[in-house]
Amino acid sequence: MDKSLKIVLLLLLVLGSNTVFAQKLGYIDSEYILNKHPDYKVIQQELSKVSAEWKKEAQTLDQEIKELYSQLKAEEVLLTEEMYQKKLAEIKIKEKTAQEFNSRVFGIEGLYYQKQAELLQPLQSKIYDAIERVTRRNNLAMLFDKAAGPSAIIWTDPRHDYSEFVLEELGIEENN
């Protein structure tokens, strides 16, 4: 009975492993796909333009604060302690305003990241739909993203890279 139990377990193991090995795996490089997509370049340009405007505004605020400090330093001798503290308080308010602006625009959930998400969302949806079609067409059980960090992928065989198929599904030719 002990020998027949071992044979049955061995058969189950072999049959079970066949289904595991029969699953097809693949990977893509989403960063590569994004950089190849022409819409991504347009989005990057739009983000750069908006970001430059906000950075200019932040620099203007910083410059005003520096000028106020310089002006205070120059007038320090002429001011009474009360006048000095009043001007210093005004500068501190301006500094707080500048910090709030930077947080509101460039903070974790700031306007810049909201704008980025707004602009990228349609493109990401389009790419995800193409990935799904490629995955179904090639009967893949799993598809990994090489660009996602930190990744569990240590080594990849280029034969299993489906990035080009996704680009093809998006209608993007290699010469871009």
Mean pLDDT: 84
Structural class: mainly alpha
Total DSSP helices: 6
Low confidence ranges: none
Number of strands: 2
Distance between the terminal alpha carbons, to the nearest Å? 66 Å
Helix content: over 70%
Q: What's the gyration radius in Å?
A: 29 Å
Q: Quick one: overall form?
A: elongated
Strands of the biggest beta sheet: in what spatial order? Answer: 1-2
Family: Belongs to the Skp family.
Coiled coil: 51-78
InterPro entries: Chaperone_Skp, Skp_dom_sf
Pfam family, one: OmpH
Keywords:
mainly alpha; 2 strands; 6 helices; single chain; two-stranded parallel sheet; 176 residues; 6% strand
Structure description:
Strands 1-2 form a two-stranded parallel sheet. The protein has one domain (23-169). 72% of the residues lie in helices and 6% in strands. It has helices spanning 2-22, 30-36, 38-75, 81-106, 111-137, 163-169, and strands at 24-28, 140-145. The radius of gyration is 29 Å and the shape is elongated. Helix 3 runs antiparallel to helix 4 (81-106) and helix 5 (111-137) packs across helix 6. The model has no long low-confidence stretch (mean pLDDT 84). The chain is mostly helical and 176 residues long.
